[in-house]
Design brief:
GO terms for molecular function: kynureninase activity; pyridoxal phosphate binding. The chain is of the alpha/beta class and 428 residues long. Helix content is 34%, strand content 13%. β7, α7 and β8 form a beta-alpha-beta unit.
């Protein structure tokens, strides 16, 4: 049996432990929801205040040049590139995940418009906004969205037929924490003649990603989860260089023009991924995102040439292994079932549990104790989920022990049955 002392010993040996000092974490809070919203970097309030008071307040419009506002999307994109296996100049930070998905899926469909292929394939359990965007685009462009289970992608009877134009997947599933083998899935899609669109919302800053090595086509991702960019932080978009001169940008705003300040009446797209920009960029939000990116990149010093993600991944797997083991040791007989894969190669940086009764209320009872996770509703095909995210930048092994201790108490006392924990909030 693992003990509290064992967990404290692991913390004492943890080379990444000092990275927690980069963050403001409220006293008494065990934060297991960085996969929904990362915590506040200590550098962010002062940096945002500087942008507001000095760069905006004093520099005014001059700051587009003097404070280098103009190239923020590209500069931050280069920082994201270090975390997702892309090269400098291949990523831009801009807009929301949903808007960027619209752009890249539109581009992929445009490339396939004369191929005779009319299917867009995605997982039934994909994040809803991805499916909603795909539904809309398929309706507008004359394609059909086909929803599948993950097991249908490869092997005998694969759904990757010559009818598939685009395979659109989230690399780490938001409900289960299950992770695709991006390289293998992309190769299978390409062998069938399909293009790939990857959503990295639960991957960037959480698990190693190798976009170029995987030969992927398009990818987008979120800035406010594991990248700690703040609520509603700008997202990012990437396109493989082989498509750089071909893809269409459906939202052809002036910031994606090859020369915005020529003010010509007709659109001329910027080269490469720069054309994915649209309107004037949100400078204050981008400043906050840069602070978040820097907290992740700080892990590079612990892993040299292998980059930040190798060091973070090793600790993430150790944290999630420990959580799974403690739940199974200490909550046996309480009706919890593990949904997240045990295999390291198939697991993201979260652990999801299901329970036939009370999943929402259990999460609310934990939140009241300061253990913040979240709940995702199921349906006739998918169970209700208690979801716990593990961000190795600011979580330790004793945090895992204490979180499970609270879970044990909530379950054994029946505390979750109290009325206040069974009233649904707008955000779950």
């Amino acid at each position: 049996m693992t003990t509290l002392e064992d967990c404290r010993a692991l913390d004492a040996q943890d080379p990444l432990r000092a990275l927690r000092d980069q963050f403001i974490i409220p006293e008494g809070v065990l934060y297991l929801d960085g996969n929904s919203l990362g915590v506040l970097p200590k550098a962010a309030p002062a940096r945002i205040a500087e942008v507001v008071a000095k760069e905006w307040g004093e520099g005014l419009i001059r700051s587009w040049n003097t404070a280098s506002w103009f190239d923020l999307p590209q500069r931050l994109g280069d920082k994201v590139a270090r975390l997702v296996g892309a090269a400098p100049g291949e990523v831009v930070c801009t807009d929301s995940t949903s808007v960027n998905l619209y752009k890249v899926l539109f581009a992929a469909l445009s490339q396939q418009k004369d191929s005779g292929r009319k299917l867009v394939v995605s997982e039934r359990s994909n994040f809803p906004t991805d499916l909603y965007i795909a539904e809309s685009l398929c309706r507008e462009r004359g394609f059909t969205l086909k929803l599948i289970d993950a097991g249908e992608l490869q092997g005998p009877g694969s759904v990757l037929t010559d009818e598939v134009a685009v395979l659109m997947l989230t690399h780490v599933n938001y409900r289960t924490g299950a992770m695709h083998d991006m390289k293998a899935v992309t190769a299978a899609a390409h062998a069938a003649g399909a293009l790939t669109v990857w959503d990295l919302a639960h991957s960037a800053g959480a698990v190693p990603v190798a976009l170029n090595d995987s030969n992927a086509d398009y990818a987008i991702g979120c800035g406010y989860k594991y990248l700690n960019g703040g609520p509603g932080a700008p997202a990012f978009a990437w396109v493989h260089t082989r498509h750089a001169g071909k893809f269409e940008q459906p939202l052809s705003g002036w910031w994606g023009h090859a020369a915005p300040f020529e003010f010509t009446p007709h659109y001329r797209p910027a080269p490469g991924v720069g054309r994915y920009l649209c309107g004037t960029q949100p400078v204050i939000a981008l400043a906050g995102l840069e602070c978040g990116l820097d907290t992740v990149l700080a892990a590079e010093v612990f892993n040299g040439e292998q980059g930040a993600m190798a060091a973070l991944r090793a600790k993430s797997l150790a944290l999630t292994d420990l959580f799974i083991a403690l739940v199974e040791e200490r909550c046996a007989g309480q009706g919890l079932a593990l949904v997240t894969p045990r295999e390291h190669a198939r697991r993201g940086s979260q652990v999801c549990l299901s329970r036939d009764e009370g999943a929402y209320a259990i999460v609310q009872a934990l939140i009241a104790r300061g253990v913040i996770g979240d709940y995702r509703a199921g349906d006739s095909q998918m169970p209700d989920i208690l979801r716990f995210g593990f961000t190795p930048l600011y979580l330790g092994f004793e945090d895992v022990w204490n979180s499970v201790e609270h879970l044990v108490q909530v379950l054994e006392t029946g505390e979750w049955r109290r009325a206040e924990f069974n009233r649904k909030n707008a955000v779950t």
